[in-house]
Amino acid sequence: MEPKRAVNAVPPHGHILCSEKWRTSSLLQGLKDGGVKILFENELGVADYHLPNKMCILYVFECDIIAGNGYKRKLVRYRNASSSFQELVLVERTRLSEQYFSAVQKFVVFDLGLSLLPVSGQTEASQLITQIVNGEGRENPFRQRTSSWLLDSMTVALVHQIPGVGRVKALTLMQNFPSIQEISNASTAELEPIVGQASAQQIHSFFHADHTAGT
């Protein structure tokens, strides 16, 4: 029916589709200051924003993370929404939410298979979204590879946070295992020739600890 039509709506270049609830937010003000034109839409589904490059964004606040596991239901609905958009989750990583962040990250990336990017708050989020939107339609490196560049850098950052894995090992892992799921499914024997015995053990137990914690 009517509501479904808006869910897959793609805004024109230089614009974003934005959920009404963000109308008075500092994030929206930052977008306007960056020259992004805002189109309000009540029926975006679970997503907060639709971008011209067919990316949609769900924003997770610090207070939602601290309040408990309620935000997880929203993330599951976001993942399950039938959308042709590339789904990105922006998560507030602050002093208060830091202790919960790795659990949130594991749930979003490993359990749901979504892309996650930590932001310090709405100001940084508005700068990121502005950069993506303003990059569309221009000849610059960001626009040429918006999706792949963003996802690759996020994956490197995620893999880099596994104990015993630095940036170099993260890049080596990604060359051999193109997705985070493949890394998580790899056996110690498969990982060892790439990162060495100690790191292979740490990577393997990192993902296994994630599954045990979820039980």
- Summed up, the helix count is 12
CA(first)-CA(last) distance: 39 Å
How many strand units? Answer: 6
> What's the arrangement of strands in the largest beta sheet?
2-1-3-4-5-6
The secondary-structure element order is HEHEEEHHEHEHHHHHHH
Structural class: alpha/beta
State the low-pLDDT regions, or none.
1-6, 137-149, 210-215
Radius of gyration: 18 Å
Characterize the largest beta sheet: strand count, sense, and whether it forms a barrel: 6 strands, mixed
Fraction of residues in helix: 55-70%
Overall outline: elongated
Mean pLDDT: 80
Strand content: 5-15%
Task: Explain what the structure shows.
β3 (49-50) and β4 (55-60) form a beta hairpin. It is elongated, with a radius of gyration of 18 Å. It has helices at 2-7, 26-33, 62-67, 70-80, 98-111, 122-135, 141-144, 146-160, 167-176, 180-185, 188-195, 197-213, and strands at residues 15-19, 37-41, 49-50, 55-60, 86-92, 115-119. It contains twelve helices and six strands. α2 packs parallel to α6 (122-135), α8 (146-160) packs across α9 (167-176) and α11 (188-195) crosses α12 (197-213). With 215 residues, the chain is α/β, with parallel strands linked by helices. Strands 2-1-3-4-5-6 form a six-stranded mixed beta sheet, with helices on both faces. It is 55% helix and 14% strand.
